[in-house]
Amino acid sequence: MADLPTLTTGRLVLRALARSDAEAMHHFFSDEEAMTWWSDGPHKTLQETADYVKVNASGERYLTWAITEDGGEALGWIAVIPGRDGVAEIGYNLRRSHWRRGLVGEALSEIIRHCFEERGLRRLTADTDPDNAGSNALLEKLGFQREGYLREEWTTHIGIRDSIIWALLKREWEAR
């Protein structure tokens, strides 16, 4: 597993995602409404979620933090997907029972700070569905700028979808 520090905010503890988080993460991955804007459809079994969490918790492909209230049960996660030198993409999810509380924004703010200040990144990107109003509003609120609109970019469980590309530069974050 990648060496991930535990990060804290006013309400949250962000810790390395673990394989043992599969059951808690199944709340998100089996929820049809929560999975609407995900690239794959809802998971039908806990084993499907366990396999997915195993890959994301390994640290081999992504840096993935579990979003928790106290360091315990994972309510969701934030993944940082390395790209070119100094650049990474972020992705996130949160169980639906915890939506609209500002938790993802709080967690993302800390991950953004960590990426720019401690990991030396200069640019973070995100890729969202144009109809995902919640994520698009959140990214804009955090200072991300819409840089592109890719037509028919993804084939998902809800059909062929367009994609909005968002980016935030370190210097923009520091100027806030």
Strand order of the largest sheet: 1-2-3-4-5-6-8-7
* CATH-defined topology: Aminopeptidase
**What is the alpha-carbon Rg in Å?**
15 Å
Which percent range fits the helix content? 25-40%
How many β-strands, per DSSP? 8
How many H/I helices?
5
- Poorly predicted ranges (pLDDT <50, ≥5 residues)? none
CATH superfamily: Gcn5-related N-acetyltransferase (GNAT)
Judging by the overall fold, what is the CATH architecture? Answer: 3-Layer(aba) Sandwich
Integer tally of domains: 1
Kindly, what is the distance between the CA atoms of the first and last residues, rounded to a whole number of angstroms? Answer: 33 Å
The major beta sheet can be summarized as: 8 strands, mixed
The geometry reads as globular
CATH level-1 class: Alpha Beta
Q: Helices and strands, in N-to-C order? A: EEHHEEEHEHEEH
Percent strand: 25-35%
Structural class: alpha+beta
Could you report the average pLDDT, rounded to the nearest whole number?
A: 95
Q: What are the SSEs and their pairings?
A:
Elements: E1 7-8, E2 13-16, H1 22-29, H2 46-57, E3 63-68, E4 76-82, E5 87-94, H3 103-117, E6 123-128, H4 133-141, E7 145-156, E8 159-169, H5 170-175
Parallel strand pairs: 5-6
Antiparallel strand pairs: 1-2, 2-3, 3-4, 4-5, 6-8, 7-8
